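Translate sequence into structure tokens.
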Amino acid sequence: MTVSAFCSLSLEPPLVLICIEKTASVHDALTTSSGFVVNVLSAKQEQLARRFAIVDIDRFEGVGFTRAASGYAILDDVLAVIECKRVSTCEGGDHTIILGEVEMTRAEGGTPLLYYRGGYAQLEH
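Result follows.
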């Protein structure tokens, strides 16, 4: 599943926010669960991002992942993982804004996958 927006919100306490469209197939799961995991994909994982953007498929079929202690899926070979406890939600037009308190992080080296102006992009050095 992909979100429309993700950003850091606060350092103390450590908070992030995600925005999910109300018509998204995972909207109800995200807005009612006790938390969520953000998987930051590498530049080499564009096909995985495209797969998770498809509606009405088993997104995890054939995809490598492990479960966090909380039970949320952590995809294999991602650049970073941010595990969050959901602290609140608020309405944002046709999206719901979900605030999460960061409980665990892990980061690896590499180039992130970027999505910009309707397409995937690369960082220039």
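Note: Residues 5-105 form a domain with the Pnp Oxidase; Chain A fold (CATH 2.30.110.10).
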